[in-house]
Amino acid sequence: MQLASPEMVTGGWILITLYVMIILYFVIRGAGKTKDIKDYALGNILFSPAAVGLSLAASITSAATFIINPGFVALYGFSGVISMAFALPIAALISLIVLTKGFRKHGKSAKALSMADWMKTMYKSEGFGIFFGFLSLLLITFIVLICVGLTKVLSSTLNIPEFYTLLGIVIFIFGYMMFGGANSMVYTNTIQAILMIIVAVILLGSGYEHFRDGVFGFIDRLNSIDPKLTQTTNDDSFLFRDYFEIIIAQFIVGIAIICQPHILTKSLLLKSDRDVNRYLLVGCAAQFLFFLVVIAGLYARIRFPDLTAGGVPLPMDNIVSAYVVSEFTVVVALIVVLGLISAGISTLESLIQALSTSITTDILQPLAGDQLFKKEIFGLPPQLVWNRIVIGIMAFITIFFSWDQIVNPKLSVGIFAQNGVYAYFSAAFTPIMLGMFYKNVPKLAPILASIFAVTTHFIMYYAMLPVPFTQADGENPGVAAAVAIVVGVVVGFTTYYLKNGKIERRKDVEEPVIIES
After folding, report:
1. Can you tell me the distance from the alpha carbon of 425 to that of 452, in angstroms, rounded to the nearest whole number?
2. Which of 288, 394, 478, 482 shows the smallest number of beta carbons within 10 Å?
């Protein structure tokens, strides 16, 4: 199915070529300043807090927010908006504010390069660091989601087969990420975030015509398509059946979702603690706007009431791409496409950087020791060379899983990604909380909390265990994660109390950041 006009295809190629040239300029500029793995992970350039804040917003936002999640809203309506535009975002932004300064305080003093490195230094346990290094492999599912989202958008815009689009995306992005790292990423993320702000405004404003009869007229149009679209719960979906799934589980997940390496470690790019408030103000404001973009899924459903285009059924992951190509003029559509690409690439860059750094420094180096990291390789630091090899292997794995999700998704690649990513931050949440806000924490507490959390998540998901007194069950990755997070907190703090006989708050950690206007 080809929806893009010849003008759209020609303009798309011109725009993509210019975009690639700009990205490569900043990559080459950043690569010249990347001398070792520390430079790759944290950078050695003095970035402004506003730039890092925009980079944060771009990193948190992904193809899921702009491309995949609006598809859920198109299918299931208001219940998806409540869940994805309000319940999870509000919890996530509160959590980001509270956790940032405590994480930065220890991360900076310990010179942590990754989340696993932070765990190792916080609890003085190399084994725990290696464990989290292996857990970070779950983030490959998020990388797959972004690559699938980018493939859908570019394939629709350029009218080329999805497989070749996927190959081009992976080869290009993974290729340049072998060299730039943090030094180039903050620059590219800042540009991408500015584009995303423009596109968010365009997408949110694209449905203004549907409100010509007011809000109730808009609701009536959705009702005429399917009355369930305007209900606050939707029993047609295993994601939005009741308020536990829509609000409570999403709020718990939102609090913990910040505990991902490409999010919390962003604060380590700041050179001064005085920059934190401005960094959070810029990042949170941009991020909340991005979360609201899922509302465009309602406009897409009005555009495709029977979820077909040209008589061909639209898979959920294709809805936004089809909406953009068919709804806007060529010029506006190309701007929107550029923003959608930016949403995906910004997070993809951060994930590649964070995951490759963790595999190199938290798995390979401690397990292989001097055998792989003793001598320079081709005149370069061994960590840097092995990091590039790791990125190459990650690219092959990404192509394999991404194509499988394009051909055989379970409703959406979003479910595949949630299962992996949610398991990861479910395991990370309690150790981060204990490490930042409590003292004399016995090593056993965070270890057991992580093990119980990740085990609970996968048992809940694959066994589809129900949650008592609700319609929810583990088939919804958000429900599985919410239960896992609660189990991790209970196990962690119970172990802490049993080992020490008391629970003590730290006094050496600064109070949580309060954003000032």
Report:
1. 13
2. 288
